[in-house]
Amino acid sequence: MQRDKGAGTGAAAVMLLGMMLLAPGASAGAGGAQSAAATAADLQAERNSIDAWRAGRVDRLTSDTGWLTLTGLFWLKQGENSFGRAAANALLLDNTSLADTAGSFVLAGRQVRFVAAPGAGVTHDGRAVSSLDLTSDAQGEPTVLASGSLRFFVIERAGNLGVRVRDLDNPRRRNFRGLTYFPVSTDWVCNARFEPYEPTRRLKIVNILGMEEETQSPGAVIFTRNGREWRLDTVLETPGEQELFIMFADGTSGRETYGGGRFLYIPLPQGHTALVDFNKAFNPPCALNDFATCPLPPPQNRLKLRVDAGEKKYAGTPERRS
Predict the structure, then answer these.
(1) Model pLDDT for residues 91-120, shown as the tens digit of each residue
(2) What average pLDDT does the chain have?
(3) CB of 14 within 8 A of CB of 7?
């Protein structure tokens, strides 16, 4: 899955708010100054939580490993795949940090080996590379090679192996325009019903490149809005995760928000109750950079409902794929 790793829910703060929203006297019908004060306190607590969450998201986006650094993505063919600035290379990246031919990515079955061109200046952990077997991100932390401000490594998506390139001096990072949001509202903090799937279901998820993968769905969250129930399938990305992942589209998609939908993380349900905070809905990486491979919401998670909460469209324009 392609997501903002670490874009967590702030589970403790959100759980606390959820309990406050359910507390006696917190409902609109409680009446009086005490109810108004409780409502104001709930809203301020939510704003504080969301402000901290947004700051963390920006920190991650603008870091050396943030999505704003992506500058290239190349899919490998079996055999030798030459890489460099010169037009004769199979994998061409016109960047001053790269030699005319930096070397070749050699794909043999499922194994990738990088063979550097003499004097190309490619390093790994600060040491010059001549030849090195590469671990992909599907096996954990990938092997990262460097050339000047560039960082490149192997990724795997739906069985396809490719080379992802970051540029620490990417103009998209230097010229980041910030993020915009709908106003924070406790109306979009929902104590949803969690309906577990027994056995766990397998969801077919298609990414923005048309590649298809299967994911594990432990259940659905059901929340009430505008007098009716709405349902979203969740995904457990890896065993032992403390959060569930939701991909969804809604009535704002392609208008106020990114057309490919948005992402959301929720704490693991407590029994049959799940706390869903749509104020923490955020854009997939593809909204910020055209070299990401974002999964798209499955058909059942495309809501005929306006979710006017969370992150809006990015003001910048993603780079175009070559």
Answers:
(1) 999 999 999 999 999 999 999 999 999 999
(2) 90
(3) no
- Name the packing angle between helices 32-61 and 11-22 (round to 10°): 160
Give strand ranges (E) for 210-279.
Answer: 212-225, 228-233, 243-248, 262-267, 273-277
HEC-encoded secondary structure of 123-145:
EECCEECCEEEECCHHHCCCCCE
Tokens representing 270? 């407590």
List, for residues 6-19, the tens digit of each pLDDT value.
Answer: 455 554 444 444 54
CA dihedral 200, 206, 207, 210 (to 10 degrees): 160
Domain(s) of CATH 2.60.200.20: residues in the chain: 69-174
Class of domain 69-174: mainly beta
Cβ–Cβ < 8 Å for 56, 65: no
> Measured between alpha carbons, how far is 277 from 46 in angstroms, rounded to an integer?
10
Is 266 a residue whose pLDDT tops 90? yes
